[in-house]
Amino acid sequence: MKNKQIYSDEPLARFGIIADIHILPSDQHRSEMLRKAFEYFDARKADGVVACGDLTQNGTIEELQEFARIWYSVFPGDRRTDGEHIEKLFAYGDHDTEPSFYPDVLKYRHEHGDRCPDWLESRGDIARNDRAAQWKAAFHEDFAPIMRKRVKGFDFVLAHLVNLDEDGMRYADPLHIPGLEEFFEVNEFDRDRPFFYVQHKIPRGTVGGPTQTGQDSGRTTAILSRYPNAISLNGHKHRMANEELSLWQGAFTAIQSPSLFTLLTAAGRENGRCSCDSDKTDPPPQMAQLNTMPDGSHALLLSIWPDRIVVDRVDVFHDGEPVAPPWTIPLPNDGSASFEVRGRGAPVPRFADGAKVEAKFIDGHDRAGNALRQVEVRFPPAQSTANSPRAYDYEVQAVLRKALVTRIVSTKRVYSQKCYWPEQYDTGDVVCLFGRFEIPNDHDSVSFVIRPLNAWGAAGPAIESEPATYDKAQVQIPY
């Protein structure tokens, strides 16, 4: 009879993960969120903190020093409050190493064209003032473009993003870390044991799905695909911690860290806040973007056990309360954390019994600021139960009826107003707006059908408003 393996009540190691901090000394709220994240990791006894780039807003030395000041105020001498060592596992991102983010440079270029004198380009920013020296001054450790550290027996590879002037790189070129292939040729890693690879941008074809912007050239993915138990950690896209597409598994595993500064949503939602959405779409969305800047601040806590990795997804603004259930990733990689496996048969959200939809006219404004008549559709959020999850977002359809014909005349996706907060704080009605011009005049009645969706786009049972007639005299089309 084989001996039964006995596991400890404590994980082998814990690591905090943050990204896109964008420290700006004049904005004390950003500094406070970073401090709160560090204090949460301290309370959870993290053995290290991973920062996946964009430590600073404008890539200035002052900002880098502010980041370091906050670190050492919480972890003096790189030690937790219990006296144990905590490791810095930081990497530069594009905001840290591209001089184009430096505000005086931007102002000069706006006023004088693209040319900027060297004295101005080099004043105060990290990239042109020996970023290795600035790193050592801030963090009291030697810098290398690709760094390897070992913490509690687990290897971390920290690959710093290059700036525009290195190796002919230009803005928007497919990203690759110079020397990465050579690094993996001379460094050996155990293929049967997890190790962690950290860079700012997305290894191509992994987290976020195939159409996600911010992917690198794909060479990183090719390298890591040789290591089935490699765990890639990145930031850059500011996605919420409750995004299921932020965990990918294929030939290796990739995890996208949410932003500590401000959160972005998926594209195409009526009130979404995504870099792919335009305010000037014709017609514009009928709703303003979600404003996550003052109160959207997420982080991850990764715990390593002998047979699994557990990733807690937390809201730093609410002192580390969960914003979504933890991810559990079996060790070794068995493919069960892939999009396909996790999405297949995932439970769907459901509205509470008796949930009602209300629709009424309002005088409002679309996202571009045009004043117009709108129809406001309002309904309660679909909260989690023992058998169903919290809704990720909602499908809202305007359904027209004319004689014996029923047809869908508009379909929208919308988020609840606090979709990025822990569920217990996201209790207000969900609102979706339709321009009156979006509803054809020739109808007997129109109703609004609402379906709650899980993070994979699968819908739960619908609720529907009472059919109503919308007077053609109410229509205003400002286009």
Give your account of this protein's structure.
The protein has 479 residues and is α/β, with parallel strands linked by helices. The protein has helices at 28-43, 61-74, 94-97, 103-112, 118-121, 131-139, 180-186, 219-224, 339-343; strands at 13-18, 48-52, 87-91, 146-151, 154-159, 195-198, 230-234, 247-249, 253-256, 298-305, 308-315, 321-330, 358-365, 371-379, 393-402, 405-414, 430-435, 445-453, 463-464. It has two domains: 13-262 and 297-343, Purple Acid Phosphatase, chain A, domain 2; 358-474, Immunoglobulin-like. It is globular, with a radius of gyration of 25 Å.
SSE topology sketch:
Layout: E1 13-18, H1 28-43, E2 48-52, H2 61-74, E3 87-91, H3 94-97, H4 103-112, H5 118-121, H6 131-139, E4 146-151, E5 154-159, H7 180-186, E6 195-198, H8 219-224, E7 230-234, E8 247-249, E9 253-256, E10 298-305, E11 308-315, E12 321-330, H9 339-343, E13 358-365, E14 371-379, E15 393-402, E16 405-414, E17 430-435, E18 445-453, E19 463-464
Parallel strand pairs: 1-2, 2-3, 5-6, 6-7, 7-9
Antiparallel strand pairs: 1-10, 4-5, 8-9, 10-11, 11-12, 13-14, 14-17, 15-16, 15-18, 18-19
Helix pairs in contact: 1-2, 2-6
